[in-house]
Design goal:
By secondary structure, the protein is mostly helical. It has one domain. The chain contains 4 helices and 2 strands; from the N terminus they run ββαααα. Strands 1-2 form a two-stranded antiparallel ribbon. A hairpin with a 2-residue loop joins strand 1 and strand 2. Helix 1 crosses helix 2. The N and C termini lie far apart (35 Å). The model has no long low-confidence stretch (mean pLDDT 93).
């Protein structure tokens, strides 16, 4: 019989992520914490979005925080999207 350790990330009572890798679970948990902070900030600035839309937007921004930082420093969306697309192609080539 094997013993398997699983790390489960729950968010607002819902299981969001399961992994055997503690580091991956911790990173996902931190991303959700950042998303919660973003949601609070967006609402605090007076934007009224439906709950699911606000959550999805906050999670997307949190998952892409490095890209968002580049955009805030002046990188154009066009060049950033091209850079991200090139990175995806590079990863796919490594897999092949």
């Amino acid at each position: 019989m094997a013993v398997i350790t699983r790390y489960v990330v729950e968010h607002k009572g819902v299981e969001k992520f399961v992994s055997a890798d503690k580091k991956a679970a911790d990173q996902y948990d931190k991303m959700l914490d950042v998303a919660d902070n973003l949601s609070e900030y967006i609402e605090g600035k007076g934007f009224t979005l439906d709950g699911p839309v606000l959550e999805e937007l906050s999670i997307m921004l949190s998952k892409n925080k490095d890209s968002l930082t580049k955009l805030l420093k002046g990188t154009t969306a066009e060049s950033l999207l091209a850079e991200e697309k090139a990175e995806v192609v590079k990863i796919e080539k490594k897999k092949a």
